[in-house]
Write a structure and sequence with these properties.
Shape: globular
Order of helices and strands: EHHHHHEHEEHEHEHEH
Strand order of the largest sheet: 4-3-2-1-5-6-7
Number of helices: 10
CATH class: Alpha Beta
Structural class: alpha/beta
Number of domains: 1
Distance between the termini: 11 Å
Largest sheet: 7 strands, mixed
Length: about 210
């Protein structure tokens, strides 16, 4: 019986990559997208890739970041899936290698219970190109899930995870049910279930 579901955010609950959306608006989309693609395929150390991408946002007005982050496109079926999980008394948590500026507005819209991510540092309302937070490293999601399981007294088989990229591997290792959603090959190899239709409602049938 599942009691906790942990989601990745970018390209899982949200239709796209937050940092790519920010980068396109700031005129550095091509450079950032290339690094994002390499990172999600496991070709780049996550910390290094995150630091490099955020550095390209240096000078972006913080107000523009907030406006963009408040209007990120949520994945098809995200509302229905989270409503279903909550109806089954399953705790819903988000682990994002992206940013609180993106997941916090989504938490209000979707109603998930808790979120962990990073913060884009800003000074005088301008991004400094620096980042810090709870999900900075390739193993951050796994370490956080291990702590959550201990805190909530959960066994592996009571936990499911949904993700799409290489930095979700560590949380898969701590989960009983591993779902790869429109995922990269490196994550599909470790998944119990692979869903390639871009509709989160497909997961409802898995856990019904």
């Amino acid at each position: 019986m599942i009691r906790l579901c942990v989601f990745d955010f970018d390209s899982t609950l949200m239709d796209g990559e937050t940092i790519d959306i920010l980068a396109r608006a700031y005129g550095v989309g091509d450079e950032v997208s290339k690094i994002t693609h390499q990172a999600m395929n496991g070709e780049f150390d996550f910390f290094e890739s995150l630091s490099r991408r955020v550095a390209l946002l240096k000078g972006m007005p913080y107000e523009e970041l907030v406006n963009l982050s408040n209007n990120l496109p949520l994945m098809n079926g995200s509302f229905e899936l989270i409503e279903f999980l909550k109806s089954k008394n399953i705790q819903v948590v988000v682990f994002s290698g992206g940013f609180h500026e993106g997941i916090d507005p989504a938490m209000k819209k979707l109603g998930f219970h808790l979120g962990f991510a990073n913060y884009l540092h800003h000074k005088n309302n301008i991004l400094t190109g620096l980042v810090g937070g709870e999900m900075m490293f390739s193993d951050s999601k796994g370490l956080m899930l291990k702590r959550l399981k201990c805190f909530l007294n959960l066994k592996d088989e009571e936990v499911m995870c949904v993700g799409d990229g290489a930095n979700d591997l560590s949380m898969f290792e701590q989960s009983g049910l591993k779902i790869a959603f429109c995922a990269k090959p490196i994550l599909k190899e470790k998944a119990d279930i692979c869903i390639d239709t871009k509709d989160l409602k497909e997961i409802i049938e898995v856990v019904r």
